[in-house]
Design a protein that fits this description.
The complex is a heterodimer of chains A (542) and B (167).
Chain A (H helix, E strand, L loop, with lengths): L5 E7 L3 H12 L4 E4 L7 H9 L33 E3 L33 H5 L9 H15 L28 H14 L3 E3 L35 H9 L3 E3 L3 E7 L5 E7 L5 E11 L5 H8 L25 E8 L13 E3 L14 E6 L4 H10 L4 H14 E8 L8 E8 L5 E6 L4 H22 L1 E6 L36 E2 L15 H21 L1
Parallel strand pairs in A: 1-2, 1-8, 2-5, 3-14, 8-16
Antiparallel strand pairs in A: 4-10, 6-7, 7-8, 9-12, 9-15, 11-12, 13-14
Helix pairs in contact in A: 1-6, 1-11, 4-11, 5-10, 8-9
Chain B lengths: L4 H9 L18 H6 L2 H15 L6 H14 L3 H14 L16 H16 L1 E2 L6 E2 L6 H4 L23
Antiparallel strand pairs in B: 1-2
Helix pairs in contact in B: 3-4, 3-5, 5-6
Classes of the chains: A alpha/beta (542), B mainly alpha (167).
Chain lengths: 542, 167
């Protein structure tokens, strides 16, 4: 069957944002065509890839998602090697998945909301930007997002983040593993800090959304073997059953405008380098925080010489993430990280406060990944042998832990994605990103988050601690198509519609005007619901 | 398509892969030539040396067989080196009374080979870079050592919440 060349609504990207919007449209009786740059694969294939990886590579969440040549994504080798062209004081070395289902294939499922203060940094603290609307406006969309993804979380408001919410989580919180439980106790008893259950897109004790209950494979990242964790791929078959057309291996490389400067069509390459054109009435570009601005910039034309949706010159600017430092502690008692889901709790209260006028907030997370795959190499490198080797691996597996310090960051126009002169297999420019976490983050680490981490290490009884030498990325891509009410300094309006093009929507993390400290996906999905309402209304009016 | 180097590694690894849970060697015809190197005598020597280095009596024989084939393919003059290492450990058993492998300078090659053999048993990979061969996952000693507390990631603990008790 020939691929369709037109559809009322064309969605570029099959990640969580694309599939959530698609389902809202389908439920409203509006046909959609979805284009995905990468392949569509089975869960079993990814699990098998993971199990067949050398032990040293198992810690890298991207390793079991090899790029296809026509759809490279950042990875250490293969088609994705050198895909991101990086410059600047800090590295914006993101990883994401260009497969049908998108990067939720390998997310941890963490679903923190923003707080009211997180959305008003400028008016409250004189830094960053305010959102185009307040928390109360976003709250109903958070609820819809939590029920769509299937979030488990605590019933007790004192354990919720933030406590201001209108509806309970659809499922109860997951229990802590022994390491997290011990961590929770010591930070509460010795520091008065509250390590609270993570709201997470993982089924607790019951099936939900045709997915089974979590059985703790400790492998949420890079792939849940049983699909207990939400990922975009779990929704694809349901979308097709509702009438969606999904084309994989379709790399959109140009957005075409018409005389009214509306979007008329998109052009894509298939895996054989053949180009195709798809026209439509409404277009949603949701192919992640890097590929979306890249596509907009690639599509510059006579009417839009700086790129689609870019009259403000803000496309590709304000690239954000959650710069993180990892503290690895060696303890004098066994914690046994690695039992249960990989991320199950966090200290969020440290992300808030008037100090944000001076420096970033931070949140602290006990990483619950099994440790033996990390410590075995160190024990071997020490030259140990026999029982001494066994004892060292056991001791280090039980008595080491990673505590992650995740910071918020401010939007900065100089943190910018542009088009590299280096080309990929299709001859399309690779993304180039210049990045610096900035003094707001550095001050936080030096004066705030590291001192707290030092106290946490002491409370845990650490006999040794090491901090990562540079800020690492959290793979939470935000800011490249930033939202605002003023078309002069933002790319999309308060429903993620491009200021410049009435029939173009750019929902997702790129629209976020501030990052807070917690993971961005739930907010991205809330924005997707808000955009979906506007898209449905616009489609029905048309 | 230009092959991703680790993909190539994994493809090669398929020749010697151990099935995940049962630990049985796949009966691949292409292994025949390599397997001829792993004769009974060599296998016995390899298991003996491995038992000395790991100080474990009950090493998985299927993993041993696969490791032996992989070592043959990745280490130059492996059989001669194994013979030399065995003779050294036999003649100087005190070397294994130490916590660390510290051989005389003249036996540096044997020390290096001992470390390669240990790495194979503990992390399931033999060789480095594009010449590395993946041998096993769940049967690595790194997993076996903690299997009273942890299951290998991607395998289940059981019903929801079963992980909450102190190991």
């Amino acid at each position: 069957m020939a691929a369709p060349n037109q559809s009322p609504v064309v969605i570029v990207g099959t990640g969580v944002v694309g599939v959530v919007i698609a389902e809202q449209l389908l439920d409203a009786g509006i046909p959609v065509l979805m284009l995905e740059a990468g392949p569509r694969v089975s869960r079993a294939e990814i699990v098998e890839n993971y199990r067949n990886l050398p032990l040293a590579a198992k810690g890298n969440p991207i390793e079991c998602y090899p790029s296809r040549e026509w759809a490279p994504h950042p990875e250490p080798a293969g088609a994705g090697k050198g895909y991101l062209q990086l410059s600047g004081n800090d590295s914006y070395a993101q990883s994401y998945v260009r497969y049908a289902g998108g990067s939720t294939w390998h997310w941890a499922g963490t679903c923190w909301r923003l707080t009211p203060a997180d959305m008003q940094l400028h008016s409250r603290y004189g830094v960053g930007r305010d959102w185009a609307f307040d928390y109360d406006t976003l709250e109903p969309y958070y609820v819809r997002a939590e029920y769509k993804l299937g979030i488990c979380g605590p019933d007790d408001p004192a354990l919720q983040w933030p406590p201001k919410r209108s509806k309970p989580y659809p499922m109860p919180a997951l229990p802590f593993g022994p390491g997290e439980a011990r961590f929770t106790d010591v930070v509460r008893e010795k520091l008065g800090l509250h390590n609270i259950p993570t709201a997470q897109a993982r089924n607790s004790g019951t099936s939900y959304d045709d997915r089974p209950a979590c059985c703790a494979n400790n492998n949420c990242v890079p792939v849940c073997p049983v699909g207990a964790k939400y990922d975009g791929a779990t929704a694809l078959s349901r979308l097709e059953a509702k009438g969606a057309t999904i084309l994989s291996n379709a790399v959109v490389w140009r957005i075409e405008t018409n005389a009214k400067n509306h979007i008329e069509a998109v052009h894509y390459y298939d895996q054989h380098k053949q180009t195709h054109r798809v026209s439509g009435k409404l277009f949603i570009i949701a192919c992640n925080g890097l590929e979306t601005p890249k596509l907009l910039l690639m599509s510059a034309d006579a009417r839009n010489p700086h790129g689609i949706a870019n009259s403000s010159d803000q496309v590709g600017r304000n690239m954000m993430d959650h710069p993180q430092i990892t503290m690895t502690v060696t303890l004098d008692e066994p914690y046994w990280a690695g039992v249960g889901p990989v991320v199950n709790s966090g200290i969020m209260e440290t992300s808030q406060g008037d100090f944000r006028s001076e420096h970033a907030g931070a949140y602290f997370r006990f990483n619950n990944f099994a440790r033996n795959r990390f410590v075995t190499f160190g024990a071997l490198q020490k030259g140990l042998v026999g029982k001494a080797l066994d004892e060292e691996i056991r001791r280090m597996t039980a008595c080491t832990a990673d505590i992650v310090l995740a910071h918020e960051i401010l939007p900065d126009a100089n943190n910018r994605l542009t088009l590299s002169d280096k080309k990929d297999w299709l001859g399309l420019p690779k993304p180039a990103i210049h990045y610096d976490v900035g003094d707001y983050v550095r001050r936080s680490y030096n004066d705030y988050s590291k001192p707290i981490a030092d106290r946490i290490a002491e409370a845990m009884g650490a006999i040794d601690k090491k901090f990562s030498k540079q800020f690492n990325q959290s793979k939470h891509i935000m800011g490249g198509t930033i939202m605002g009410n003023d078309p002069a300094n933002s790319v999309v309006d308060n429903v993620c519609r491009a200021h410049d093009h009435h029939n173009l929507f750019l929902p997702g993390g790129g629209a976020m005007a501030s990052t807070a400290c917690g993971n961005s996906t739930l907010t991205m999905v809330a924005l997707a619901f808000r955009a979906a309402d506007a898209i449905v209304k616009q489609a029905q009016e048309a | 398509m230009k092959l991703y180097s680790r993909r190539r590694v994994l493809k090669m690894a398929g020749l010697v892969v151990i099935t995940s849970a049962a630990g049985h060697l796949l009966p691949l015809p292409r292994l025949n030539a390599a397997q001829s190197l792993a004769n009974a005598s060599a296998q016995a020597d390899f298991i003996q040396v491995s038992q000395w280095l790991t100080q474990q009596e009950n090493l998985n024989s299927a993993v041993a067989h696969a490791l032996l084939i992989a070592l043959n393919q990745t280490q130059q003059n492996f059989m001669a080196g194994l013979t030399q290492l065995k003779a050294l450990l036999q003649s100087q058993p005190e070397l294994l009374q130490q916590e660390q492998l510290t051989f005389a300078a003249s036996d540096a090659a044997s020390e290096k080979l001992a470390q390669v053999i240990l790495a194979g048993w503990y992390n399931g990979v033999v060789g480095k870079g594009k010449h590395a061969l993946y041998v096993t996952y769940v049967n690595t000693l790194a997993n076996q050592l903690v299997n009273d507390k942890l299951v290998p990631p991607s395998f289940s603990y059981g019903k929801c919440g079963s992980w909450a008790q102190q190991p």
